[in-house]
From TrEMBL:
InterPro entries: Znf_RING, Znf_RING/FYVE/PHD. GO terms for molecular function: ubiquitin protein ligase activity; zinc ion binding. It comes from the Eukaryota. The keyword DNA repair does not apply. CDD domains: RING-H2_PA-TM-RING. This is RING-type E3 ubiquitin transferase.
Length: 253
């Protein structure tokens, strides 16, 4: 089993404004009225494992943030085509860096509208440079899709023993990402195992120790949905951050 990732950000929001406290200009005084624009992006990150519909907040990695600065003639905003030529590449660099591709037409439209609006404010009369800020924020979700293929356990063991594979999984991630499940042959007794999430799996053998699971026993399930004896997978992940079956990668230090 292998996996591929796609990224999306369905909740991206933005605001365009003229700051009260103007930053120090990074450019010389222009001959014509110009706009000095700061565009900042801040996004949180999540993982969505499609196989078991599990969402995980990547709090350890922290939010992704980036900034771009540019200055251009105010007249650029009077021509939509020119404005898009100037602003689209800058927004594109920000969004590609965060692993998500979005349409940024609404953002550019708001920059144009606000830039032309503040030109006529009494407080801006006589200014040679109009300071403008655009802030973007949201959540980037990495959707991990699984594709079935022939994978041999021996190959996984060999690769995990290689120099590049012998990196242990992060202990806090193991505790957070592995789920306690109960091995069942039939229906679940809802009152049993109160400290176990109401989740059943039907598996036969643990591929690490090759011993049979006992019906009703507690096992640990990785985000890729492969299930192992608790002691077996915890010991394994202390040596390698790869799933022994599909090579799914757990976070490392």
């Amino acid at each position: 089993m292998a996996f591929v990732s796609t990224y999306c950000c369905d909740d991206l929001q933005h605001v365009v404004y003229q700051p009260r406290l103007e930053p120090v200009s990074r450019y010389p005084t222009p001959r014509f009225v110009q706009v000095e624009l700061t565009i900042s992006l801040r996004v949180d990150r999540k993982c969505h494992y499609s196989l078991n519909d599990q969402f995980i907040d990547l709090e350890d990695e922290g939010p992704f943030s980036s900034e771009e600065f540019l200055r251009f003639d105010l007249d650029v905003l009077r021509d939509h085509h020119r404005a898009y030529q100037v602003l689209a590449p800058v927004l594109g660099r920000l969004l590609v860096a965060s692993n998500v591709f979005l349409t940024f037409d609404p953002i550019i439209d708001d920059i144009i509208r606000h830039g032309l609006k503040i030109e006529n404010w009494a407080s801006n009369r006589g200014r040679e440079v109009l300071i403008l800020c655009a802030e973007l924020w949201g959540t980037v979700v990495e959707h991990i899709e699984y594709q079935e293929e022939a994978v041999l356990l021996g190959r996984a063991l060999e690769e995990s023993a290689s120099e590049s594979g012998m990196v242990p999984a992060k202990e806090s991630s193991v505790k957070r990402m592995l789920k306690r499940v109960r091995v069942e042959a039939g229906e679940c007794d809802q009152k049993a195992g109160q400290n176990i999430k109401k989740r059943l799996v039907k598996v036969e053998d643990c591929v690490i120790c090759l011993e049979e699971f006992k019906v009703g026993s507690v096992a640990l399930q990785m985000p890729c949905s492969h299930t192992f004896h608790g002691d077996c997978i915890e010991k394994w992940l202390k040596q390698s951050h790869y799933c022994p079956v599909c090579r799914f990668e757990m976070p490392t230090e």
